[in-house]
Write a structure and sequence with these properties.
By secondary structure, the chain is α/β, with parallel strands linked by helices. It has two domains: 6-102 and 260-464, Zn peptidases (Aminopeptidase), CATH 3.40.630; 104-243, Aminopeptidase i, Domain 2 (Roll), CATH 2.30.250. It is 29% helix and 24% strand. The protein has a nine-stranded mixed sheet with strand order 1-2-3-13-4-14-20-16-18, sandwiched between helices. Strand 2 and strand 3 form a beta hairpin. Helix 1 (12-31) packs across helix 12, helix 7 crosses helix 12 and helix 8 (308-320) crosses helix 9. The radius of gyration is 23 Å and the shape is globular. The chain starts with 11 loop residues before the first helix and ends with a helix.
Length: 465
């Protein structure tokens, strides 16, 4: 089956809407390089669209009904938005679910040290990365610093044009004979991926008595000046090392986007905007769910395996029709979901890893994966045929370009999403998303056409599933 490029169907109005959506997407990528930043930005957008916090609605003690727009957050790292529909929640929701965490490198809790006159931060990588891709590139630090007095300070170093950037150093090619003989997985080790943060010693007049590590002392002095941060504050800090710089148009024709974190913020943003652009209440309640920790198994309090989403649904049931455990179970079972995550875009330069007939291609529309998992479909949801047929009908009716695909050859590798977790409730779930080149690299590539088609597809799903 051949899927055609979406570019050929656009008129001038389509192209204008496409560029406007992608401009907003690039801004979202720049502002949201961590899960915390994504939630902060998404909440601003939601409140501008009339959404109110769940706790505000509950304190008002009024019965919620069709058209009410509610959101709830979990530890600042996960977000659920709801626009209540005309039918009771018990009849089910149409859910767009995506994740807002991305592969990166995290700063450890006892990270700062000096070695031969250079200061470093010790790190631990997060998610699946090719470690050698992260060296010799400008890096930034984003995160949060929690103080013992309860204050939380946002940290961003390396994004402003006047900021310094940071780097993981690499071995010069002139001395790299032994390094070049290693497997790619061991060229750079996890423990060897330490961030270079300083080389200048603190002035002797500012050094404490018997303080020998003057370069480390200077780094601490600068952190104290800017963030009132002491070395012990690393213990309660969440600092993420990410590529520095903004999302950029890619290609001489500006048809693509090159940026960090498009897995899975491309699906998060398009789902969010599709949700916020719906002004009037629909027949069924709409939901946009943005979660953390997918890259490491959806674990923890802010991951999909936690009870956050289920608890929020229970609160909404109580506020619309009265407390009922059974109504919560019925709501979840009767819901329909697009588990939105990125797909591997076919790359002709690495054709051996793909089965071409079952691959996703850039610019041929949003992707659907009936199943994900690895090898023998391990860890997969595997959507029902009837639900797949319904999704096809919805997308065709809305003139959305889409393609069905798999993640590479059967025995080459694989991956998973949050679909199997939501499917445990008995709801219909299928994986959907956008194809990327260089997935999990510091900079990933998407097609602007696919971003636009995903947005259209998500709106069609909310309206008609």
């Amino acid at each position: 089956m051949e899927y055609k490029t979406a570019w050929k169907k656009y008129n001038a109005a389509d192209l204008e809407a496409l560029e406007a959506l992608n401009a907003g997407y690039k801004t979202f990528l720049d502002k949201g390089k961590t899960e915390r930043e994504c939630v902060t930005e998404a909440v601003k957008m939601a409140e501008a669209a009339g959404y109110i916090p769940l706790e505000t609605a509950l304190k008002a003690r009024r019965r919620l009904g069709a058209g009410d727009k509610i959101y709830a957050t979990c530890m600042g790292k996960a977000l659920a938005l709801f626009q209540l529909g005309e039918e009771p929640l018990e009849a089910g929701m149409n859910i767009l679910g995506a994740h807002i965490d991305s592969p990166r490198v995290d700063v450890k809790q006892n990270p700062l040290y000096e070695n031969e006159g250079q200061a470093y931060l010790d790190t631990h990588y997060y998610g699946g990365i090719k470690k050698y891709q992260w060296v010799a590139q400008p890096m930034a630090i984003h995160g949060a610093l929690a103080k013992k007095d309860g204050t939380v300070i946002d940290v961003v170093i390396g994004e402003d044009e006047t900021d310094p950037v940071l780097v993981f150093s690499d071995l010069l090619v002139h001395l790299a004979a032994n390094q070049m003989d290693k497997k790619a997985s061991t060229v750079i080790t996890g423990e060897g991926l330490d961030l270079l943060v300083g080389n200048r010693p603190l002035e002797e007049s500012k050094l404490e008595k018997d303080q020998k590590e003057a370069v480390k002392a200077n780094v601490l002095y600068l952190l104290k000046e800017k963030y009132a941060m002491a070395e012990e504050d690393f213990l309660s800090a969440e600092l993420e090392i990410v590529p520095a710089g903004k999302a950029r148009d890619c290609g001489l024709d500006r048809s693509m986007i090159l940026a960090y974190g498009q897995d899975d913020r491309v699906c998060s943003y398009t789902s969010l905007v599709a949700m916020l652009d719906e002004d009037k209440p629909l027949k069924r309640t709409s939901c946009c769910l943005l979660v953390d920790k997918e890259e490491i198994g959806s674990v923890g309090a802010t991951g999909m395996q936690a009870n956050f989403f289920e608890n929020v649904v229970a609160e909404l049931i109580a506020a619309t029709q009265g407390e009922s455990f059974l109504a919560v179970r019925r709501c979840l079972q009767n819901s329909k979901m697009l588990s939105s995550d990125v797909s591997a875009g076919y790359d002709p330069l690495y054709a051996d890893a793909f089965e071409k007939r079952s691959s996703a291609f850039l610019s041929r529309g949003m992707t659907f994966n009936k199943f994900t998992g690895s090898r023998g479909k391990g860890g997969s949801n595997d959507a029902n045929a009837e639900y797949v047929a319904k999704i096809r009908a919805i997308m065709d009716e809305a003139n959305v370009s889409y393609q069905f695909c798999e993640l590479g050859k059967v025995d080459v590798g694989g991956g998973g999403t949050i679909a199997y977790i939501m499917a445990k409730y008995g709801m219909d779930v299928i994986d959907s998303g956008v194809a990327l080149l260089s997935m999990h690299a510091p900079y990933e590539v998407s097609s602007k056409a696919d971003v636009y088609e995903a947005y259209k597809g998500y709106r069609a799903f909310l309206q008609n599933a």
